[in-house]
Design goal:
The protein is mostly helical. It has 9 helices and no strands. The protein has one domain.
Length: 212
């Protein structure tokens, strides 16, 4: 998590969460709908986890859906109304690039955690923007990995802080009859997306038109 510079005003951890909270208040119902459908699709993966079909489902369905989910929260952070359909946006654009990106990030992070945990944390932070780059900027998977690693330079500690602050929020959500976990995770996604939106301008061509 090295230092560096990047165009755009970089918020602090608390500013990212405050921005996320404002977005959550504005698009609460829409984001809840996205989160519920995303969660249900994730539950299917958990139910099938012991089978080969479950692995295929996780790679070919849930992975791309998760990239779409992150894109929905980014749209909200940019002031656009998110939709459940955003979960499936990569299925009509760069589907295989989304699959490859998700597999590569998962493999790199997993290897990093095997290597004494710290490399896994670094990889998680430095590859945190891969989904945004693949879906919003339509970068190929390998380019998105390189771009995320480079663009997060100088932002690593803040991104790590955003993720770290989510731990007490999720624990508080568990105390609040478990259901509080959902808004806690929504707020985490919005804090991450709000930070990205603050430092990375929306590309002019981000209309997700026909596949290349």
């Amino acid at each position: 998590m090295t230092n560096g510079t990047m165009a755009g005003a970089a918020p602090t951890v608390m500013e990212a969460y405050r921005a996320g909270w404002e977005v959550l208040k504005r698009f609460a119902l829409e984001l809840l709908a996205v989160s519920v459908v995303w969660g249900l699709l994730g539950a299917v993966s958990g139910y099938l986890s012991e089978s080969l079909f479950g692995l295929v489902y996780h790679v070919l369905v849930l992975g791309p859906v998760s990239l779409g989910g992150m894109y929905a929260f980014l749209r909200a952070a940019r002031g656009e109304r998110p939709e459940v359909a955003d979960l499936f946006v990569v299925f009509r654009t760069d589907y295989w690039q989304a699959v490859l990106a998700n597999v590569l990030v998962g493999a790199i992070v997993s290897i990093g955690f095997v290597l004494l945990v710290v490399p896994g944390i670094i990889a998680t932070v430095r590859l945190a923007w891969v989904a945004y780059l693949v879906v919003e900027e339509r970068k190929p998977a390998l380019e998105a990995l390189r771009e995320s690693w480079e663009r997060t330079r100088g932002h690593g500690w803040t991104l790590f802080g955003i993720g770290l602050l989510a731990i007490p929020l999720v624990l508080l959500g568990l105390v609040l009859l478990v259901v509080g976990v959902i808004p806690a995770l929504m707020l985490l996604q919005l804090a991450m997306a709000s930070y990205y939106a603050a430092v990375v301008p929306r590309p002019l061509f981000a209309d997700l038109g026909p596949t290349r």
